[in-house]
Each structure stands twice: as structure tokens, then as C-alpha cells.
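User: Some background: our group keeps a shared notebook of sequences we're curious about, and every so often someone picks one and asks for a predicted structure to add to the entry. Today it's my turn. The entry only has the sequence so far, pasted here. Could you supply the structure so I can complete it?
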Amino acid sequence: MRLFSSVLVVGLGKVGELVARMLHGAGYSVVGADVSARAGLPFPVRPLDVGEGGALRSALLDVEAVVSCLPHQLTGRVAAAGAAAGVHYFDLSEDVGVTEQAKALAAGAKAVLAPNCGLAPGLICMTGAWLARRFDHLSSMELKVGALPRNPSGLLGYAFNWSPEGVVNEYLNDCEVIRDGRRRMVPSMSEIELVWIAGVQLEAFTTSGGLGTMCASYEGRLERLDYKTLRYPGHCQLMRLFFDELHMRQERALAGRILVQAKPPVDDDVVYLYAAVEGERDGAFVRDQAVRSYEPLWLDGQRWRAISWTTAASACAVVELVATGGLPDRGFVRQEDVDHAAFQATPTGRLLGAGSVPAAAA
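Assistant: Of course. Here's the predicted structure to add to the notebook entry:
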């Protein structure tokens, strides 16, 4: 039995449309909302500018939950309106400010506020926490995610299949980590290392927002924790040139437009997730890893990019867990508190479980 069945999905872009399709296909009463007119979708769509507070409040009157698939600079408005209306709130944001806003709004809320329901933060945090629960004593946790073109071109080896505003934000904002057991801030695009996944060489470097609330949850429980973005080798050095030597750091909007024009989206992409935890178990010091790769998938009669369907599936699985009582029905939900087995038992969670998983962790 579901605790709620009506959902408003705000922002029908690369991911939002699929979130709405997945929830509609799972039997939820879905209403889409977008600033642009949309036709040909299997659920009703209403025009909505979230900058108009009255229109946003009206859109929330007839639903029990809302999923914001908007850029981070707009999604905070949906969080505030959702909390005021007493509807369950979910988003895909990796922005630290939005997460802190949701946590503050959750105090005394009559419904759930669950930000960070995408890949990073989101699925990667659940995966790291799942591995951590297998240890008697923790030492370190490494979390890494990369959404990359399968067949890259040019020196950057990248394509902007995700929000350019979000990527620029992650590259330039400082990153929260744990070092020597304490929370600290380190510069983004630092601490570069090499990683091999299924024979593919990648580089990993710090970026902002991928840990969500993990540092607060694990401070004092392990010595080292960080999140890094995965790219093809050489990418980070070129992005430093772009932002620092070409003085684009102070021109974020312009930087996003230039980068998308230079590296537009591609359909043939791959998403890598890499989580590793070290510590003691049964008197021995061991390392557990969970490594997954995802490719484009046919869903609802369409081929969806890997970054789109994995992000949408992550969000829908969290919605399903709240709706079916697998998570609390009010207050702030941290992604690391989501039960990994319950997550993978949901219809969309099962899709994500189909990625490659080491035999020891299966």
C-alpha cells in the first residue's frame, strides 16, 4: 500500500521527463510542469514558472509529492514551497546550499524533504554507506562518479550531457572532505589520481557537492573520505587552463555556454560508479569495492542516455521507498541512510542493480 500516489514533476528536461514517465508507468498520478509547452506525453503537463510564487503554490495544491528536476539556482524555491504546502519533496541537486536549505526546512516539517536523489550525491552515497556497514572499524572511503562519452573526441574528452551550470559549479566551488577524522575544505580540481575501470584509464579529481551530507554523517568515524569526478586523462589540466589562465572563473554563465558549444551532448555515453572502503573486519584490514558501469537503455519505447536514466531511476527509487514506507514519512532524509537492499528491490532500483557488481559484494 502506498502512502501517497500523486506527484508533481517540475522541469521536464533531459532527466525530468524520464522521472515523470517512470513514475507514471509505476502507477502514480503524475502531473508535469515546465516553463515551456510540452505535448505528446502520457501525463498532463501544465505551464509553470517557479519564479511566480503564487503559480507554484497553486500547482502543489492537488498533489502529495513534488520532484524538482530544475537547475540548482531554481530548485530551492520548490523546496520552500513544498515544505510550506506539506508535500513530500525530492530533488536531484548537488548544490550544498540547496541541501542545507532542505535540512533547515525539514525541522518540524509534516512531510519528507529528500534532496540529492541523483547519482552523486545519491546512489554513490548509498553504495559507500552499504559497504561501510560491513566493517567493524572504518579507515577510509573513496567515492567516484563519471558520466563520459563512450567515444570521446578532442583533448577534453568530454561532452556536456549534464547541466553545464551544474558542472561549472562542481568544478569551481570548494569541496568538503574528511581528513584525519575531521571535516575540511579543499580546492576543487585538486588531488588528481589515476583509476582503471574494466581496463579503461581514467583520472579522478575533487569536485564540489558529490558527498551531500556524508561528511557530517561520518566525521569522527573514519580518517579519510572524499568524492572525486572521473574523466579521461588530461581533462582536469585543460579545465584549470580554461578557468584560471583564461580568467573564466569569474564568468560562470559564459563559461557554461562556451563549453556546451565546444562539447555538445552525445547519445553514446557511459556512467561509471566507483566506491571503495577500507577498514577492519574480523581482525583483518581489508578493502571492499563496488564498481558499476551503465550504458544507454531503451525505456518506454525510447533510447535514453546513461546519465539520464541512471539519475532518473535513482530519484524514482527514493520516491518509491518513501511512498511504500521504506523510509520515514517526514523530516530530512539523508541518502546514506537509504537501505541499499530495499533501494535495489524497487522497480527502478532493480535497473541500477544490473550494473557490474563484484562477486564479494553481491
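Suggested note for the entry: The chain is about 35% helix and 30% strand. Residues 292 and 355 are 5 Å apart (CA to CA).
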